[in-house]
Amino acid sequence: MEKIKTYLTIFSILLLPVSVSASQEDPP
């Protein structure tokens, strides 16, 4: 169970910058 939690945490950290850049590139 700990492995899954760690995997999800890393996944979220990796996805955070992607969503931020995606929202910034989004046309107004």
Structural key phrases:
mainly alpha, 1 helix, 28 residues
Question: Can you characterise this structure?
Answer:
It is built from one helix and no strands. With 28 residues, the chain is an all-alpha fold. The longest helix has 24 residues. The radius of gyration is 13 Å and the shape is rod-shaped. 0% of the residues are buried. The mean pLDDT is 86.
Give the H and E element order: H
Beta fraction of the residues?
Answer: under 5%
Helicity, in percent?
over 70%
Q: Based on DSSP secondary structure assignment, what is the total number of beta strands?
A: 0
Question: What would you say about this model in short?
Answer:
With 28 residues, the protein is mainly alpha-helical. The protein is built from one helix and no strands.
Question: What topology emerges from the helices and strands here?
Answer:
Layout: H1 2-25
